[in-house]
């Protein structure tokens, strides 16, 4: 099990690392945060997962590309970043007259492709866990996207503070009527129906920014395995609350109608607030490349840099704030990887 590290403690070792010349600006130490706050946002970029020497000598094995020809590159991408990056990948392939095999799946698929060395580039919807930091693997941040809190359309609540949201998901508040919000009458006496999806449980960020681990969620929470289940369950209960990125909320709208609420006064659709760090729950989209032979590939490195450089061209429907914008607003980077929040 991965040890949870508070964000203030992460800032201490990251500050020391960057001040020693690791890249970017030095990170000032933050004050200790109350225990009720969420878990760590990022893992230690210095971590390296031990792997056998025989593994390090393996070349990348690639399937055929979309045209059936032997692929020049192989990509394994998480299900949200896959459609966002695919137009850029196809343009790069066409412009460079190369064949690229792409596979869509989960962060687990991406991590597995690193472990069995079956992809030149992988992509995840979360910051890497310590176990994802294998020898010779480098991470490049594409950007971040808000994780929206979602409720039933009949729920009149428009805004929650982060503290209120944590009490709801944690189970210390069991009725909407117990919150200082007005207008909630329908089923007000029924208990809050917490819906969780505890994906990528070893990785920092994402839902861990709401509550630090699975045990912190209400014992009455309904944990669902899939994104569509999250949307459907919240749409079926007037007292439900859950979370998901806006793209998935819109993607599965026909499977269930839900509504987003503001968090600390900020809408998850307000990318300026997300970029400024004012909207506090988000996913981080990273891609990986290899830095050691024989897996290292100059073409793959060019593609990785191309995707980072053109992240601002991703369709706005995905709600991704590109890494270039985050740099401008003071988020902390180590080389190409996002490793710290702006505050």
Keywords:
two-stranded antiparallel sheet, 20% strand, alpha/beta, 13 strands, 343 residues, 10 helices
Q: pLDDT below 50 for ≥5 consecutive residues: which ranges?
A: 1-37
Percent of sequence in beta strands = 15-25%
> How widely separated are the two ends?
28 Å
Rounded radius of gyration (Å): 20 Å
Helix content class: 25-40%
**Structural class computed from helices and strand pairing:** alpha/beta
Number of strands: 13
Q: How would you state the average pLDDT, rounded?
A: 87
- Tally of helical segments: 10
Largest β sheet strand count, sense and barrel closure: 11 strands, mixed
Description:
Helices cover 27% and strands 20% of the residues. Helix 3 links the parallel strand 1 and strand 2 (100-105). It has 343 residues and is α/β, with parallel strands linked by helices. Strands 1, 2, 3, 4, 5, 6, 7, 8, 9, 10 and 11 form an eleven-stranded mixed beta sheet that branches. The protein has a two-stranded antiparallel sheet with strand order 12-13. The chain contains ten helices and 13 strands. The model is unreliable at 1-37 (pLDDT under 50).
Structure described in brief:
This protein has 10 helices and 13 strands. With 343 residues, it is α/β, with parallel strands linked by helices. The strands form 2 sheets. Strands 1, 2, 3, 4, 5, 6, 7, 8, 9, 10 and 11 form an 11-stranded mixed beta sheet that branches. It has a two-stranded antiparallel sheet with strand order 12-13.
Spell out the blueprint of helices and strands:
Layout: H1 7-22, H2 53-56, E1 73-78, H3 81-96, E2 100-105, H4 107-115, E3 121-124, E4 137-151, E5 159-160, H5 162-170, E6 193-196, E7 222-223, H6 227-235, E8 240-245, H7 246-251, E9 259-263, H8 271-275, E10 282-290, H9 298-309, E11 321-322, H10 323-328, E12 332-334, E13 337-340
């Amino acid at each position: 099990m991965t040890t949870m590290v508070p964000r203030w403690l992460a800032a201490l070792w990251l500050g020391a690392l960057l001040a020693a010349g690791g890249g970017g600006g030095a990170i000032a130490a933050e004050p200790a945060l109350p225990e009720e706050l969420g878990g760590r946002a990022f893992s230690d970029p210095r971590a390296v997962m031990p792997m056998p020497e025989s593994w390090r000598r393996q070349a990348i094995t690639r399937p055929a590309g979309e045209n059936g020809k032997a692929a020049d590159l192989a990509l394994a991408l998480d299900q949200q970043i896959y459609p966002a990056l695919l137009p850029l990948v196809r343009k790069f392939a066409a412009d460079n007259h190369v064949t690229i095999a792409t596979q869509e799946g989960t962060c687990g698929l991406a991590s597995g492709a690193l472990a069995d060395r079956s992809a030149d580039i992988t992509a995840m919807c979360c910051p890497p866990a310590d176990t994802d930091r294998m020898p010779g693997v480098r991470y490049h941040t594409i950007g971040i996207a808000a994780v929206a809190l979602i409720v039933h359309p009949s729920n009149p609540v428009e805004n929650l503070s982060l503290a209120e949201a944590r009490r709801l998901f944690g189970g210390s508040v069991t009725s909407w009527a117990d919150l200082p919000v007005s207008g909630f009458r329908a089923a007000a006496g029924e208990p809050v129906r917490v819906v969780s999806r505890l994906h990528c449980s070893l990785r920092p960020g994402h839902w861990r920014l709401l509550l630090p681990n699975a045990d912190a969620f209400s014992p009455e929470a309904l944990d669902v395995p899939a994104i569509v289940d999250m949307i459907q369950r919240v749409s079926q209960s007037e007292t439900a609350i859950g979370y998901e990125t806006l793209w998935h909320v819109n993607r599965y709208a026909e499977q269930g109608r839900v509504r987003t609420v503001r968090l600390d006064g900020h809408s998850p659709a307000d990318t300026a607030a997300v970029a400024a760090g004012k909207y506090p729950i988000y996913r981080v989209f990273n891609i990986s490349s290899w830095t050691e032979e024989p897996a290292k590939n100059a073409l793959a490195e060019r593609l990785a840099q191309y995707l980072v450089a053109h992240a601002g061209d991703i369709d706005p429907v995905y709600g991704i704030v590109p890494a270039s914008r985050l740099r401008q607003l003071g988020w902390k980077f180590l080389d190409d990887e996002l490793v710290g929040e702006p505050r």
